[in-house]
Amino acid sequence: MHRRDVLRLLATGTALQLTPLNILALARQARALVAEQPSPRTLNPHQYQTAKTMAELILPRTDTPGATDVGVADFIDLILTEWCDDSERERFLKGFADVDARSNALFSVDFTSSTPIQQSQILVDLGQQMGEDTSRRSRRATRSAPSPEFYPMFRRLTLTAYFTSEEGATKALNFEIIPDGYRGCDTVGLKEAAKQP
User: Fold this and answer.
1) Fewer Cβ atoms within 10 A, N terminus or C terminus of the chain?
2) What local confidence, expressed as pLDDT, does residue 93 receive?
3) Residues 25 and 5 sit within 8 Å (Cβ to Cβ)
4) DSSP characters for 74-125?
5) What b/e string do you get for 69-82 counting C-beta neighbours within 10 Å, with b at 16 or more?
6) What's the CA gap between 125 and 119, in Å, rounded?
7) Mean pLDDT, range 52-64, rounded to an integer
């Protein structure tokens, strides 16, 4: 599978519909791509911190690793860099600006400087906006407005990044990783079996 195909499957959430072995193979490829990425290439430091904070609020560390522990923000940056075209990337980045604008309007500070309770309130508001009728959203949306799909896409990427990571799959989903191949009878076992009557 080619690099772009891997990223397309992960970005759209299609990977989660694959069989467990295919998910494992796809997750390994994606994690290798994230590991190769030296630093965020699309997100600036403030957007990167906003992504980390939002992802950690969606999947906080409990008795299982949190979103930050598995590198969700790095995964999102990889998808934005390698898979999204310029217009999609621009609309997505406007979503981060919208999150800061909401925070400034409500609390007079940007999102990362607000308190965890204030940050949670903004995510609740964004989640409620997701539930609105799509026709009303499309009438309100303009070319300069942030994409109404920002938060659903952010959540989808966060969940995909988390559950395709080794820690998310094994510790949160209790997914048992199966060895890559099947080794038949060992030669020692065959010799022992041949000696028995």
Assistant:
1) C
2) 94
3) no
4) HHHHHHHHHTS-HHHHHHHHHHHHHHHHHHHHHHSS-GGGS-HHHHHHHHHH
5) bbbbbbbbbbbbeb
6) 10
7) 93
Residue 170 and residue 173: Cα distance in Å, rounded? Answer: 6
Cα angle, residue 62 at apex, residues 111 and 43 outer, rounded to 5°: 35
Rg (CA), the chain: 21
Question: Is the torsion defined by CA of 140, 153, 97, 87 positive or negative?
Answer: negative
Residue 7: phi and psi, rounded to 5, are -65, -35
CA-CA-CA-CA torsion sign (114, 117, 123, 128): negative
* DSSP H/E element including 32: helix 20-36
Say how far apart CA 176 and CA 38 lie, in whole Å: 30
CB 37 within 8 A of CB 78: yes
**Best mean pLDDT range from 58-67, 84-93, 96-105, 131-140:** 96-105
The region that residue 146 occupies, defined by phi over 0 for left and psi between -120 and 50 for alpha, beta otherwise, is beta
Please report, rounded to a whole number, the percentage of residues in the chain having pLDDT higher than 70: 61
Residue with tokens 């979103």: 67
Which of 36, 123, 39, 110 shows the shortest CA–CA distance to 77?
39
User: How many angstroms separate the CA atoms of 165 and 69, rounded?
Assistant: 10
Residue tagged 């598995």 (tokens): 70
* Tokens standing for residue 31: 């994690």
